[in-house]
Specification:
By secondary structure, this protein is an alpha+beta fold. The chain is 53% helix and 16% strand. The strands form three sheets. The chain has a five-stranded antiparallel β-sheet with strand order 2-1-5-4-3.
Length: 461
């Protein structure tokens, strides 16, 4: 993959886009928080300054009242201490006060609007010490000692502090944005490389290479889980396609013989028709066709169940009752073929959720297999436990290395090919079991006979 392709893929990555979205959201939240913080801090500072002004006003009012006691209104007031600062004499002055007597005389700095109205205000003042600079002052004006007193505190200091807030928030937002985007690029690059591996494997699978696997992707996260699911799905797909190829070969092999026999019989039928002896040959031909049709029906049933057939016909089925019905149907047939039939149930009832017709067909297949492969004179047993139903025979059994193999379609052991059938009986039982989420267990019938096979359908508890 070229660098340009990696960069284009990086900018399409969800990790980077998510980091960009989060950065924008964070900056917006930061701006709103900065505005709110500035407003609240401004209000808090204003309240604090107002409280300080009130305290200073009350203290000065007491001192002025004490200094003016006993003096005539026309006399110039005299104070023992300098109570009034003058901002015209110092740029560093933070507080000042002005007093206007009843006669209109003013002590201290006295611009016209200083005494224009009572209460708290913020006003700009231009002082002579800094002719080009206008500074903001927070003032409080109120009556005192028969005149009017104004106390003021410089507001510029608070304004300077408040002006730092937007810059601080912007700087923090810029740093956070850079860090977030950098992290997003890093995470996006790592994620893109991992997704690139997944994409390449999927491309190989699409081209027919079912052996391609994603493998481990490092740390355990959602991409690792996705890779594991892809590998598991590919494993299953590879097995299914291999089984399909084997199934096609087996179908062609196992149907070639009956179709050849059918052709021979039809040729013979054409010759015998001239001699008037076509009836017997026609019956044999029809029997061959019936076997072929039965085979295709079994294939269709297996395919339908493997694809997940509908469970609408599922109902509560009592395995004991179902076994009794099968006993009534097969006991005479089993005994007519020279076998002993035995029915055993370890429980009075065993209820499972199942399709009764499919379950009967599966058990019937097991009984027919026992009839086909067992030696006459032995016993065929139908056994019901709390969560299973089994068919046990005393035939040749199946070697352990072939027990799983015979559950696949068209798989027959060499000795079984001479007994007819197409190797679909146990495959159909396996499909029925999978549909019911049950297990097919093949075991040797050792407790009852030295040889034999016991096939059980075990349902989940």
């Amino acid at each position: 993959m070229s660098l340009r392709t990696e960069i284009k893929g990086l900018f399409r990555s969800s990790a980077l886009r998510l980091s960009l979205a989060l950065s924008v959201l964070f900056v917006l939240i930061l701006l709103v928080a900065g505005g709110v913080a500035q407003y609240l801090l401004s209000e808090a500072l204003e309240d604090q300054i107002d409280d300080d002004l009130k305290v200073r006003f009350e203290a000065l009012a007491v001192q002025i009242t004490q200094s003016l006691d006993g003096e005539d209104d026309d006399d110039e007031p005299e104070f023992e201490i300098d109570l009034f600062g003058d901002p015209r004499r110092s740029d560093d002055l933070i507080f000042f006060a002005s007093f206007q007597t009843r006669s209109g005389a003013t002590l201290g700095f006295s611009p016209r609007r200083l005494f224009s109205k009572n209460g708290y205000r913020t006003i700009p003042l231009k002082v002579e010490a800094s002719e080009d600079e206008v500074s903001l002052w927070r003032i409080y004006t109120g009556p005192a000692a028969g005149g009017r007193l104004t106390v003021a505190q410089r507001w510029d200091t608070a304004e300077d502090l408040l002006e730092l807030l937007p810059g601080a928030f912007i700087a923090a937002g810029a740093i956070a944005t850079v860090l977030t985007i950098s992290a997003g690029i890093g995470f996006g690059y790592v994620a893109q490389r991992r997704l690139g591996k997944i994409t390449r494997v999927l491309d190989e699978i699409a081209e027919g290479n079912l052996s391609a696997r994603v493998g481990a992707l490092g740390r355990r996260d959602d991409l690792s889980d996705l890779a594991s699911h892809i590998d598991a799905t590919t494993d299953r797909l590879e097995v299914l396609l291999r089984q399909t190829r084997e199934l096609s070969v087996n179908i062609a092999h196992d149907l070639k013989t009956p179709l050849t026999r059918l052709r021979v019989r039809l040729e013979a039928l054409a010759l015998e028709n001239e001699e008037g002896r076509a009836g017997e040959t026609a019956e044999h031909a029809l029997a061959e066709l019936d076997r072929i049709l039965i085979t295709f029906d079994a294939i269709l049933q297996i395919a339908c169940m493997d694809a997940g057939a509908s469970k609408k016909r599922f109902e509560d089925v009592d395995l004991v009752q179902l076994a009794n019905e099968l006993s009534d149907a097969y006991s005479a047939v089993i005994e007519d073929n020279g076998f002993r039939f035995e029915f055993e149930s370890t429980v009075p009832a065993a209820t499972v959720r199942a399709d009764p017709a499919l379950l009967k067909q599966a058990i019937a297949n097991l009984i027919e297999n026992a009839l086909r492969y067992s030696v006459p004179g032995g016993a065929i047993r139908l056994i019901v436990n709390s969560n299973s139903i089994s068919v046990a025979d005393e035939g040749p059994g199946i070697p352990d290395e072939h027990k799983l193999r015979v559950l696949k379609p068209f798989i027959r052991l060499d000795d079984a090919r001479s007994n007819g059938g197409f190797g679909l009986g146990l495959a159909l039982v396996q499909s029925v079991a999978q549909l019911h989420k049950a297990d097919v267990v093949l075991a040797d019938t050792k407790k009852v006979a030295s040889v034999g096979l016991t096939t059980s359908l075990v349902f989940k508890a």
